[in-house]
From TrEMBL, chains A, B:
Annotated spans, Disordered: 1-30
Low complexity bias spans: 1-19
Domain HTH tetR-type stretches: 27-87
Top-level taxon in the UniProt lineage: Bacteria
Pfam families: TetR_C_16, TetR_N
Keyword list, A-Z: DNA-binding
Species, as recorded: Kribbella alba
DNA-binding region(s), residue ranges: 50-69
Protein name (record): TetR family transcriptional regulator
PROSITE patterns in the cross-refs: HTH_TETR_2
Length: 208, 208
């Protein structure tokens, strides 16, 4: 096992012109670990990812991964660093006419998913949420505190949290169907038309 | 490894009053394998499930699982046998006033998810779709042929398939949010209120 790993690493290092063997913790090492972790979480989910495999993929020793990140949880949170800060998104979405709130939410959400980097990160999150109860709990808390609570407060109606979480169901559903299941014609419809179809529905959930 | 498995099986057999040791392929063996497979797919998804582990859980030899099911794919399809036949569901949903179509779809869908057996099977499907591209492809074809096509044909408008697949996004999203992520307040809202909130939206997608 160790021999196989070592030769894989050596081959990779040779191909990229690096000196073979374990690299020391340089300035870009943390970034390379995060990149490898992101790829693994995206492809294999939370449960299918191990620190050892991430270390191998990044070409470093597992101890070095532990030096930078206390646990797989921490590695996940750091590597998942959302393409945009959810609190900034909430603030941006809440600025503007209330009757266009649904439109702003859908445009912002699909905007993240339509960028290749954003899509890779969001897919990793979704895959990990589904395969691990622990990650589901993490995401549940994150969504509630960073998005549902502030948007609900702005709505200022008694059932605001239910309204906002119904919007979340529609957004999660479109992400699952378009980007993960790739069900047609939702997967192949131009994003502008999707926004036109979905925005009135999210607006309805929020203010009707 | 083999020793641990054997004693676990013996303990299980003793606890249930069965004769210890490998059981022969009796009339209920296939059913017990399917039950064990369903549990594993629901908890660990498609990738996290192995024929060996299913055999262990069912208290039989892995060769016996292979005797009944050619592959993990086949075991999945058989064990996932939907709680209800999708074609019958489509037919039932399509019978009745068109302006209540959205309501009938949401009631039927949530009805399946609210039954414990249905929920376990649907969770297994959702988890497996997310963790395996192969299962995602199977589901995509199944949903398209058995549900989207007949419902779209009944609608009889040019963009019918897009309309029906948008309904699918909302249904998949409510399932993910309520039963897998368990995000509140969607997770704790009585099902009748959820139907009242979501039915107008699915109706809007279909006929507005």
């Amino acid at each position: 096992m160790t021999g196989r790993r070592a030769s894989a690493r050596t081959a990779g290092a040779a191909a990229s012109g690096r000196t073979p063997g374990r690299r020391p913790g340089g300035p870009d090492t943390r970034g390379e670990i995060l990149r490898a972790a992101r790829e693994s979480f995206a492809g294999k989910g939370f449960s299918g990812t191990s620190i050892r495999a991430v270390a191998r993929e990044a070409g470093v020793d597992a101890a070095l991964v532990h030096h930078y990140f206390d646990s797989k949880d921490e590695l996940f949170i750091e590597s998942m660093a959302l393409p945009i800060d959810p609190r900034q998104v909430a603030a941006r979405v809440l600025t503007g006419p209330r009757e266009e709130l649904g439109h702003r939410i859908v445009t912002t959400f699909l905007g993240v998913w339509e960028s290749p980097d954003g899509q890779q990160r969001m897919k990793a999150i979704l895959r990990s949420v589904v395969s691990s109860d622990e990650v589901a709990r993490l995401m549940r808390e994150g969504i509630t505190q960073m998005i549902i609570a502030p948007v609900a407060e702005t709505l200022g109606v008694p059932d605001a949290k239910l309204r906002v979480s119904l919007v979340a169901t529609q957004l999660i559903g479109i992400a699952m169907t378009r980007y993960l299941i790739e069900l047609d014609p939702v997967a192949s419809t131009p994003v502008a038309e999707l926004v036109d179809r979905i925005a009135p529905v999210t607006q309805h959930y929020l203010t009707n």
